[in-house]
Amino acid sequence: MSALLQIEDMSHAFGGVVAVKDFTLSVEEHEIVGLIGPNGAGKTTVFNLITGVYRPRQGTLRFNGSSLLGLPPHLIARKGIARTFQTIRLYGDLSVLDNVSLGSHSLVTYGLMAAILRLPVFHRTEEAIRKRALALLEMFGLLEYAGVPANALPYGLQRRLEMCRALASRPRMVLLDEPAAGMNPREVQEMVELIRWMHNEFSLTTVLIEHHMQLVMEVCPRILAMDFGQVIAEGPPEYIQSHPRVVQAYLGTEEAV
User: Fold this and answer.
1) Over residues 54-73, mean pLDDT
2) For burial by CB atoms within 10 Å, which of 26, 155, 186, 237 has the most?
3) Where does CATH 3.40.50.300 sit in the chain?
4) Does 23 have pLDDT greater than 70?
5) What is the pLDDT of residues 74-84, one digit of tens each?
6) Alpha carbon distance 173, 182 (integer Å)
7) The pLDDT value given to residue 252
8) CA 159 to CA 191: how far, in whole Å?
9) Full 3-state SS string of the chain
10) Which CA distances in Å does 192 have to 95, 145, 155?
11) Are strands 66-67 and 222-227 parallel, antiparallel or unpaired?
């Protein structure tokens, strides 16, 4: 069976600075893969290349058998890839419900005139989006905050809301960019459980970037380590955490972590 996501020899540079070089990754359906590395290693650039924010200078990028090269972000989202961001990107002044509802609009098929004239297809679609958003909020334990502005939520709930919104587009794959950033140990453990639950409940394929080694080691059966835009090691957690090049990339030494 072919991989759901297949990347081969993908490279990208900003001017003369190489951000990603010869990056190769194959992710099977329902797999969870972690992507780690020090700041500036190229991890988020990989996510931006997958989601169409940047276009690779070379290499191939295929999802479910189709090339993603040259597609804009909204069409890539429509194909079944959703993401969260290292820095939370919610619509802070909009309600929690509106934020999740907006996550579904990459799937909208009615045209501009239907929206302007408020045709029946517009009302049916918007009501279906609202019902799904409410159902997702209930599943994520956020229903009581449906009418609250997103920026009024505590930080941990904002992270949860962003992940909830990502699922509104009915993705097959989610890309989580540092979902535990800024969290204390208790919140990190809660995020571990949330990612596991979300992955299984929605039959997702998940790729995540994270600096919290506790989370990565608990959640990801397979991990890729990057440094200076290249993969320096790949394997299970126990292999990665003692790999000399990984330890050196993080600590500048060859002592085991």
Assistant:
1) 96
2) 237
3) 5-80+171-251
4) yes
5) 999 999 999 99
6) 24
7) 62
8) 9
9) CCCCEEEEEEEEEECCEEEEEEEEEEECCCCEEEEECCCCCCHHHHHHHHCCCCCCCEEEEEECCEECCCCCHHHHHHHCEEECCCCCCCCCCCEHHHHHHHCCHHHCCCCHHHHHHCCHHHHHHHHHHHHHHHHHHHHCCCHHHCCCEHHHCCHHHHHHHHHHHHHCCCCCEEEEECCCCCCCHHHHHHHHHHHHHHHHHCCCEEEEECCCHHHHHHHCCEEEEEECCEEEEEECHHHHCCCHHHHHHHHCCCCCC
10) 26, 22, 16
11) unpaired
pLDDT in tens, 201-249: 999 999 999 999 889 999 999 999 999 999 999 999 999 988 999 988 8
Tell me which CATH code domain 5-80+171-251 carries. Answer: 3.40.50.300
As given in the structure block, the two tokens for residue 163 are 């992940």
Task: Kindly report, residue by residue over 115-156, the tens digit of the pLDDT.
Answer: 787 888 777 777 888 999 999 999 999 999 999 999 999 999
Residue 253 is encoded by which pair of tokens? 């030494």
**Residue in this structure with the two tokens 């990565």, named with its chain if needed:** 216
- Amino acid, single-letter form, for residue 250: Y
Token couple for 181: 């950033």
Residue 248 sits at the vertex; the CA angle it makes with 35 and 240, to the nearest 5 degrees, is 40
Q: Look-up: residue for tokens 């600075």?
A: 17
